[in-house]
Amino acid sequence: MADVNPPQQAAAKLANFANLPPPAQGAAITQQMQQNQQQMQQMHEYNSIARLENSNIRKTDDFMTALRDHTTNANITDFPATPAQLSDISGLVLDQV
User: Fold this and answer.
1) How confident is the model at residue 21 (pLDDT cuts 50, 70, 90)?
2) Which domain of life is it from (predicted)?
């Protein structure tokens, strides 16, 4: 049977704790992650409602609700104002829509 040295094992395990953030910092990280998750959920809900509203538009000159960028939670730049403008978009704006 291998020779086990409990004090050395304990010291090795305690050394691993150096990699953990201090409790206050860990709490701050957890809080920031929760805020980010809540913001992403709100943005997702906003875009879902905007898509629903936009799907009910019947005239090409009715105004559409802009979608929000998933990285900034700001309205997508150059989002088409009306369905008539949809055929004019391309490139990065098209990718975001």
Assistant:
1) confident
2) Eukaryota
